[in-house]
Fold this protein.
Amino acid sequence: MNADVIWQIAGLGVLIVVVHSVIKTAGRDELAWLVTLAGVVIVLWRVIGVVNQLFQAVRAVFQL
Amino acid sequence: MAWVTVLALVGFALVCLVCLVVLRPLRPELAVLLGLAASALIFAALLPRVRAILDTLQTLARQGGVDGAYLGLVLRIIGVAYIAEFGAQLARDAGEGALAAKVELGGKILILSLGLPILLGILQLITRLIG
């Protein structure tokens, strides 16, 4: 139950928001949205890894 | 030493709660992902205990002479219920009540289809006893 993943995701989220607002103030709105999307994809990739781990463990325990 | 894991569990849940509350107004979709990761981690942390419980139940049932096939089926049904509830609760958390209801419906149907052999076995047992 280590919270590393939680810190990574929360940190990435805050980073995304900051970068998004910085780029938006620079006037490049569409680039800001692309950066946000890239950040969300990275977080999604990390979360899918965690969920996959969980599903493999559940399959082992419950012989699904 | 069970109180250690309860403290760790609640501590971990509080940490996730704070991160979620911070993240939700800024980036709602990331908050949903964070909630998914947090509940998956807590779920995974509880699995060794669930396995221990299931193992003791199996040994008890085996001593009681219950047929092994039904045991595997009951195990699988518990697993389906476990995961269906996990998914449905997450969908409801993200505000998608309809999606949650569909996941629960799917879980119920799967459990019903898994449970049919048990039902047939019991019916055969009863007819044999009566006949």
